[in-house]
């Protein structure tokens, strides 16, 4: 099934001409309207009119998350605020979010891209789609929601929360498609077992998962335990609707008429050939409010040009196995160690030493901060220790949107070595 077959199955030569046309239009727009790009193009002697082939994109400068943070909140917008109809955000390492703006055209295209991904994953107008991503400033739920409505499916915006409530909704509303993180899907499967409910009591047929890394073994477990076909999809808070699997499940089809994808060496930035593993770099081709040129995602993957049995001609990317930076994904939320350190330091603790310990209990992430008490701290003072722990816990939850357990430990009990700051014992 296709949502926009004229683009999803476009002949490669025709697609590349469309990409070039849209790239040239985007470069001219950012050179006129975004000071960062105008300055960088001038420094490099780049005239957008000189970009005459897709190969020329290698000459363009990278955009990084630091660029987004340094231009907070609206410095990279390419349209006046009066043309922005929606703003959403992702968390940054300093505690300030990256603000992403959308014009009405951006929202419409995002809905179309989500409809493509849902359709490729098996969803039709006859389905009831339960969206168990959290609704809020983060982008996760909104594109899928509007895409499902565009298809004509029934949308159940259940958001996150109590898994028993989610299962009750599935039963009562006869949910046929589930959208959430893969770890939450397994948590729901555990809850089904606890409630002695057989998967056959549900109407589920499809699951579309994303926002965190997962393996083929995890897919098989989800499919077996929930009785569904599970597909992967990929996007970022900064760039939404990038790619999704078809039911062949042999890689994620990139929506190349909207995004130009490259793979680069994470250390050198050198462009790598198809089939090589490296960092995914994306250039938006149709974004109006928040266009990005050669954005370094930090996500590691490979690209393949091999044809897919589904008939789509769009290139595919492999499932994301990890990242090239130190970003952590906890409950589907992107968190940097520097954020955690900034929050802890902001509580008034002087030069705190801490360790981030990540476990998976059942199928859900458990994030713990092991925090050394100050040298002068009296461990017998229970009230003071409780106040420190609660202060850090609340600040982390409020500023990062992730629930951490916080444990105060004796001074100098955490090892001092390069590998001690993060202990990630999760397996997915």
TrEMBL record:
Residues 332-426 form the AMP-dependent ligase C-terminal domain. Its EC number is 6.2.1.30. InterPro entries: Adenylate-forming_Reductase (IPR051414), AMP-bd_C_sf (IPR045851), AMP-dep_Lig_C (IPR028154), AMP-dep_synth/lig_dom (IPR000873), ANL_N_sf (IPR042099), PA_CoA_ligase (IPR011880). SUPFAM superfamilies: Acetyl-CoA synthetase-like. The keyword Nucleotide-binding applies. Pfam families: AMP-binding, AMP-binding_C_2. Keywords: Ligase, Nucleotide-binding. It is an enzyme of class 6 (ligase). Coiled coil: none annotated. PANTHER family: PHENYLACETATE-COENZYME A LIGASE. Monomer. This is Phenylacetate-coenzyme A ligase. It comes from Desulfomicrobium baculatum (strain DSM 4028 / VKM B-1378 / X) (Desulfovibrio baculatus). The lineage of its organism: Bacteria, Pseudomonadati, Thermodesulfobacteriota, Desulfovibrionia, Desulfovibrionales.
């Amino acid at each position: 099934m296709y949502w926009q077959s004229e683009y999803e199955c476009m002949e490669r030569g025709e697609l590349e001409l469309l990409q070039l046309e849209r790239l040239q239009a985007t470069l001219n727009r950012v050179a006129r309207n975004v000071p960062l790009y105008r300055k960088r193009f001038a420094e490099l002697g780049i005239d957008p009119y000189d970009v005459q082939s897709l190969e020329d994109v290698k000459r363009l400068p990278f955009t990084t998350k630091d660029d987004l943070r340094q231009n907070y909140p609206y410095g990279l917008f390419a349209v006046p605020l009066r043309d922005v109809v929606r703003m959403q955000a992702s968390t940054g390492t300093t505690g300030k979010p990256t603000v992403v703006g959308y014009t009405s055209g951006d929202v419409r295209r995002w809905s179309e891209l989500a409809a493509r991904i849902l359709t490729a994953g098996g969803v039709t107008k006859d389905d009831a789609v339960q969206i168990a991503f959290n609704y809020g400033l983060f982008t996760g739920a909104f594109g899928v929601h509007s895409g499902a409505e565009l298809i004509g499916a029934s949308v159940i915006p259940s958001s996150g929360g109590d898994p028993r409530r989610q299962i009750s909704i599935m039963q009562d509303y006869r949910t046929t498609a589930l959208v959430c993180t893969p770890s939450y899907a397994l948590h729901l499967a555990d809850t089904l077992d606890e409630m002695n409910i057989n998967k056959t009591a549900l109407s589920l047929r499809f699951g579309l998962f994303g926002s965190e890394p997962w393996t083929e073994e995890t897919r098989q477990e989800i499919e077996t335990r929930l009785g569904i076909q599970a597909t992967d999809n990929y996007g970022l808070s900064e760039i939404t609707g990038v790619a999704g699997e078809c039911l062949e499940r042999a890689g994620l089809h990139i929506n190349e008429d909207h995004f130009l994808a490259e793979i680069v060496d994470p250390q050198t930035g050198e462009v790598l050939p198809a089939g090589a593993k490296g960092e995914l770099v994306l250039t938006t081709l149709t974004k109006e409010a928040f266009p990005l040129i050669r954005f370094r995602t930090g996500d590691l993957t490979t690209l393949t040009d091999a044809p897919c049995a589904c008939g789509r001609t769009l290139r595919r990317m492999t499932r994301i196995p990890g990242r090239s930076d130190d970003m952590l994904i906890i409950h589907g939320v992107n968190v940097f160690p520097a954020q955690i350190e900034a929050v802890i330091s902001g509580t008034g603790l002087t030069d705190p030493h801490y360790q981030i310990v990540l476990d998976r209990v059942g199928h859900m992430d458990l994030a713990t901060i092991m925090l050394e008490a100050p040298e002068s701290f009296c461990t017998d003072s229970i009230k003071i220790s409780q106040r420190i722990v609660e202060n850090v816990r609340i600040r982390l939850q409020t500023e990062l949107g992730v629930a951490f357990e916080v444990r105060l430990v004796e001074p100098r009990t955490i090892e001092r070595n390069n590998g001690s700051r993060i202990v990630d014992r999760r397996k997915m």
